[in-house]
Structure formats: structure tokens, C-alpha cells
Hints:
Blueprint: E1 7-13, E2 20-26, H1 27-99, E3 120-122, E4 149-153, E5 156-160, E6 163-166, E7 169-172, E8 178-180, E9 185-193, E10 197-203, E11 208-218, E12 225-226, E13 231-235, E14 245-252, E15 255-257, H2 259-262
Antiparallel strand pairs: 1-2, 3-4, 4-7, 5-6, 7-14, 8-13, 9-10, 9-12, 10-11, 11-13, 11-14, 14-15
Amino acid sequence: MKAKPRGVTIVVHKDGDLASKQYRLPMWAFSVAKWGALGTGLAIMGFFAFAGPIFRAAARAHQLDREVARLREENGRVQQLAAALNRAEANYQSLRQLLGGRAPRDTGAGATAVVLMHAVPVRAAPAGIQRYEIGPSLPKHWPLGDLDGFVTRGRVGEGDAQGEAHPGIDIAAPIGTPIRASGGGTVAAAGADADYGMFVLLRHPDGYETMYGHASRVLVHENDTVSAGVVIALTGNSGRSTAPHLHFEIRRQGLSLDPLTLVKQGN
């Protein structure tokens, strides 16, 4: 007796009906359908496995584009603020030059009245006119070289045992202006101070010393030997300072001297 081919019978029964429908599939057709469904499922899983990172990267790229746009917008606002700050700084310097220094308040009974000198324009000599000495020398050169300067505050003493209200002069200058040694000598100290900010202290012959304060950068080190005119620092606004300027002092034997009596305009 010949064997009946093997197959798969699928019975479909609808709820409420008495009759059922039967579908008979050959075994090979059932195998093809089974493996086809398996292959389709694997293909779908593989698609999501490989496409998922792509979709996530695309979403991430979109977020990055929005972040870049935001940063560009903020950068534009920063540039506008920087321009406004530069204009305000220029206006402040103009007002400071026009108004000059202000007198300090009376500190109590018996205090000597002090009047700060009014802002005095100081013009340095044209380039090439200055002649600097080689080696140690007395401080007699303008510390900003050929650059025009503007003295916004002069040396002021209280006239009593409490010391001096302002031992040097303040010279308004843009940040980064070269500061030159007023005379030749040795760097006694260089660094940072709460009041002077970034500073350089030079020691000259005959007991003279010069102090350069509120710098933005110091270019010499302690015990360095410098000649007159050598750039020792750059002007700034460090320490107790309200605007970019150079604080310049001249001392002898520990006593403060008025720099304008020793350093002449154009020297």
C-alpha cells in the first residue's frame, strides 16, 4: 500500500458557526512558510539593530545643530557686550582725563586738608629722541617711553606722622602699554601684591628705588639687572585699581619723592 504524503492540516473554526474549514498544506509548503516567517522576523530584527544607531545619530546631529545655533547666538551677544564695554571704557578714560583726581574725604578732627593735583597732560618725547644710559643709573626717564601719558593723580602727603596719602603718580595708559625702567639697576622684587597688583621694584645707585604697579604682566625676575629704557612690564588694571594705569613711585633712602621733580617730560 502506497504511503500518503505527509502534510499539515489547518482547521479554521469561526465562533458561532457549526461548520469548520480545513486547509491542508504539503509539508514542504509548511516548511517554506515557517522558515520564511523566521527569516522575515530575523530581517526585521536586524533592520532595527542596524538602523537604531543611525536614527539615534541623526537625532543627536539635529540636537547638535540646535546647540551650535544657540552658541552662535550667544557668541553674537557676547561680541555686542564686549563692544559696549570697550565703548564704556573709552568714555570712562575720557571722563577721567577731563575730571582728574578727586580729593580724599576728611578723616577726622585735626586731619590736614589734602588736595590732589588736577589731571595734567604729559607728552613724552618723539620716538628716537630719548637717550638711555647703559648699566646702573639714576631714575630720570619717563616710564612709558615715547608714549603720551596722562597723570590722573599726583604724589600727595598728609603732612603728619601717619605717612603719605599717595606716594607716587598715576599715569593713565591702555592695557598692554610697555613699561620701561626709569633708570638702570637691579630688580629688588617682582610679583603680585594686594594693593599694587602685579608690580616691579627696581633698586638704583645712591639709594634710589622705583616702583611700577598695577601691571598686567611682569617681564623680569628678582635679581635681574636692567638698563634704563628696558621694558620690564606691561600696563594693566591689577590690584587696587579702578581703571588701566601705571602707578609710578620714586624713593630714596626709604622716603618717597615726587617723580615729577626728577622725571622730566620728554626724558
